[in-house]
User: What shape does this take?
Amino acid sequence: MPDLFAQISPAWALFLSGLICAVVPVHTVRKLVMVLAPLAAFLLFLAPSTLGVAGGVTQIAGMDISTYRLDRLSYPFGLVFILAAFLTAIFAWHNKDRVQDVASQFYAGSALGAVFAGDFLTLFVFWEITAIASVFLIFRRGTTASRNAGMRYLVIQVLSGVLLLAGAVMLWAQTGSLAFDEVGLDAGLAGWLVFLAFGIKCAFPFLHNWLQDAYPQSTVTGGVILSAFTTKMAVYALARGFAGEEILIWIGAIMTLFPIFFAVIEDDLRRVLSYSINNQVGFMVVGVGVGTSLALNGAVAHAFADVIFKALLFMSIGAVLMRTGTARVSQLGGLFKSMPLSAFFCIIGAASISALPLLSAFVTKSMILAAVAEEGHWVIWLILIFASAGVLEHAGIKIPYSAFFGHDSGRRPAEAPFNMLLAMGLAAALCIALAFPWGGYQWLYAILPYNTAYNPYTWDHVLTQYQLLFGATAAFVILRLVNLAPHEKLSTILDFDWVYRKLGYGAGVWIGDMAGRLMAHLGGVARGAQARWGRTLGEVFTPGGAVARALPSGTMSIWTAILLGVALVIAYVAA
Amino acid sequence: MTPEIAFLPGWLVQHAPPLLVVTPLIAGVIAAVLPSARASWGIVLAITFFAAAMASFIAMQVMEVGVWSYALGSWAPPLGIEYRIDGLNAGMLLLVAVIGFLCAIYAPASVEAEVAPENRSAFYGAFLICFAGLLGVAITGDAFNVFVFLEISSISTYALVAMGAGRDRRALTASYNYLIMGTIGATFFVIGVGFLYMATGTLNMADIADRLQGLEGDRTVQAGFAFIVVGLGLKLAMYPLHSWLPNAYSYAPTLVTAFLAATATKVAFYTLIRFVFGVFDPGFGFAGLSMIWLIAPLAAAGMVVASFQAVFQSDVRRLFAYSSVAQVGYMLLGVGLGTAAGMSASFLHLFNHALMKGTVFLALGAMWLGFGVTRITDLRGMGRTMPYTSAAFVIGGLSLVGVPGTAGFVSKWALLVACLDRGWWWAVLALGAASVLAFFYVGRVLEMMYLREPPQHDGHAVTRSPAPLAALAPMWILAAANLVFGIWADIPVRLANAAAAAVLGSAP
Assistant: This one.
């Protein structure tokens, strides 16, 4: 029996749970299934005794399909996705919306399936399911803004899938294999198409706007779930297909840098967190781009840690949003008085993302920085250091400070419900455990793709990090004191999407307008001919639609004759 | 050749090919004159089942042993009429017979709702005769015999379509149009056969093929080729000769639409292949050139244009009728490639298209039975009011789009690969465009069915109204086949490869 289970991808457990949720009307049963499904997935995940299994192998029309590839790269991603599915299920326990339940199960299941996919076809299928399933987590907010943002999100995500399929087909034509392994940009157009597909989901600069557009419009629980899967799945895909591509280093460095400026002035805290996803994923992309074993380890480990602390932050802000109905800085503040536990967990998450020693990002991000330094990319290294300080600024301090402390908004909402606190508590505990110097980080390092003897807790690491953190904190405090810090207002920040949402739209309207005038002019010329034709047609197409349908047999006969002529001409020419 | 099968009586085995055609033909006449429609249906059910069994037996036999030639009345070919079954038509016979049987299960539900009581026996009679005609076209090895059976099946089809008048009077004009166009097609075909007879002095297809060697430059042969291709192009709704099809499919009784969509154009398509590749030599300059300059471009144009037309339809069966025209384009494209891989992909798509369109039209028929709706906007909330029917429709629709895991994907992929092998990038582009459009037109319907609220009736949402089992069973058999053949594509691929091998002498 264990052999059999070892062949079954854990993703199916979540899909099964999604199907059950779709038909079970009883809220409690659904929630129980949703919590148990990740556990079942975990058991399946443990079933293979060795890594490197390839299960679910079949052939469809001569193509080798493999739905379950468990190796050292997919192992940590699979594990953390199962973990995230578990935490989010607990967090969403109170949520009675069946659509969201089903969507979240399919979304988590497909993300897991994509990570375990051994070939491009399987990857494509799960890639598209993540897009389609996750959009419901945005739609179900129920506002017009969320509906529009959801549609924009869906279009871009599906586009990513189409590009992926196109690239895969071209790769297949070139190599005759559908296996999802190292692709590389040397593969020409095919490689670039796949790269672009991954890049969209990974929110590369200029391809990133769907993220800040859609995630803040999602439901309370949806935001948490969304933050965990899509981008990290893309990081996995990049690590699999494009490890060591030089261009990724620069892309990643820009990703770490530009969101900071937006995030610092942004008013909506969930949008701040969305920018922070960009920023953190940027670190991972740099790691993938460097491509050494240390760098890849760092990227994977950072993804692992990021899923948890980002979920934690989204959870705490989600709790605030649920209790107060807003996540805007300008309307929040002083909530720690009535939501002390949420505030505490938020601080843990914020300190984790800022890479405070003894918390998770410290043991993971430092690996990426060390790898960058080792390879001699000093400019990049400086950018990353600057970005790390920026993380503290926009996420580490701003998030907990403006929501729970800062100027008192006078709101005294109730503490988050127990299930949310439990989920936050578990996530916070994990943040601490993953960086625990005696056994914690060693466990994390042991499941990484490459064996490593790296030790994050050396004096110089810890000291550097403290200097950085103190410097950034001091900057924050001083700027607040002298009132130079930019203030968040209820405002719209122009990001790159302005180009296609406003400029592009405007240009489209203008062109449409001009084309309309042109057509009107041409129409005048054509109208005379049209009128004559119209009379003729009108005589044939008498109002009853039935007679209008009698016309084609005449036209058709003419067509038949024309085709016969063409066929005869071809035959004569050939002979 | 006398095959050895232990569990069937010897005479049945020996005369299986003619029995397959003659039994439904005679039974059709009997069914038409019976006073009770129920009794007629009993005959239809029994005969189609018998035919399906016979066809499977013949197909197995051909797969095992090879070509089966039967001389009617023991008049040896080429003088007598020969029934000749090889890898190409064994699968066709099986397809027609099985779809006919599945449609027969659904028949009474459709007939009692749509056909006037005094016409019902005649309807069943016409159905059986059409069935016999289609089998006859597929089985015969005689060129003139093909024409006769083509007309038998077509004329009964006109009657079947016209009987939709009990529901919608527009069926009459649709049928009239179909009659005119079908007759032109048949006339062209028979003129072409006449030219071939002039040039070779024989009507046996294998014999014509032999005697055509060396006649490549003969003007008579060339003219015959042009007439046959255009005539059959009309019958199989090759773009732009398709315009009889949308109306015929929209206004015919739902049963007839499902049956025709899954079989009639397919048989015409088979005949085209048989003539272009089996009778003429594809090595002939004019045949090869027609593939590249006539059939392939029209196929690609049809795929794209008809898909566009489908997107803008408001009547749901009309939408899928245009989609059928587009799918015929897929099949023709495979043929136009002229390679073994293309031929195999094209036959694969032929089988799979029969499965998906059968599912879709049966589901739409059941929806008409339940609520009397034909417009797309009237399908809103169908996912809730007819859940099982809608689920089957979803499978058929996804297969039509070509979602991986469904049969449609397998054949579209095979076609894509065949185009890539040939290096026809424009064809790949057309394939992609048509698939995206298919996503839209299927998506439009699915959106109505699943994302809209059911309509209100007297202030209450319409309640659930599941389809009868007689409609659900065949629909779900076909839907399941879509899924099964999407994952275990072995059987259809074998049949398609056998077909390609029979035509081109080499399998991909």
In short: Residues 537-551 of chain A have pLDDT under 50 and may be disordered. The longest strand of chain A covers residues 53-60. Residues 497-540 of chain A form the longest helix (44 residues).
